[in-house]
Amino acid sequence: MNILFIGDIFASPGRRIVADHLQDIMETNRIELAVANAENAAGGFGITPALAEELFALGLDVLTTGNHPDAPGSGVALVRARNGAECAVLNLQGRTYMPNTDCPFRQADRILGALDPDVKVRLVDFHAEVTSEKIAMGWYLDGRVSAVIGTHTHVPTADTRILPGGTAYQTDCGMTGPYQSVIGVDPGVVIRRFLTALPVRMEASKGAPELHAVIVDVDEASGKARAVRRHAIGGD
Question: Count of domains in the chain?
């Protein structure tokens, strides 16, 4: 089965490009489960109930979040894919240079230990700042989950691979939003902040949206990844 994971949807440009292309991506790639990180969907900071409903209506099955929404959630969602397979989507947050949270490694152990062993398809969105913490999580969960995909830093990485235990991995999926920006924010605003060291109002950039995603082919009987690849739209 094919799983689509879309990187951090940032503000209205990100929502717009998802609306324009999601159904085509799903049909062309025979997607059985569509997941997106939506913690930046509302103007770049958090998400609202109305926007969540809007994204679900487009065809997304699960929305993950991160450090902007206040509610910590349960860390896992169980959902049935279009082919009938039961899937677990885990959402963990790193601790290095991030708000204080419980240890994501131990939380992963707790969540996985409580899952029905028959739920073989397991996707992890690891929302973290530091590359080393993300890579460590990939190795820590190798063989226990189908995929570990990093989010939060908004820059797609080129280390897409399948680890020895059968877990698909990418350090960061990249942002789905305006790339003529500084990780989604208007460049002038961010440059002014660096030059003056004064607080500024962060405003989302408006143009040149790109969609960045990862598509994972999972053997639903074993939960192991058979293939993984990056999928991008825009940036021409």
Answer: 1
204 vs 10: CA distance, rounded Å:
8
Tell me which of 21, 68, 152, 212 is the catalytic residue.
68
The pTM of the full predicted model, rounded to 2 decimals, is: 0.95
Tell me the CATH number at 28. 3.60.21.10
Among this protein's residues, is 68 annotated catalytic?
Answer: yes
List the domain range (segments joined by +) for residue 204. 2-233
Q: pLDDT tens digit string along 3-53?
A: 999 999 999 999 999 999 999 999 999 999 999 999 999 998 889 999 999
Q: DSSP letter at 145?
A: B
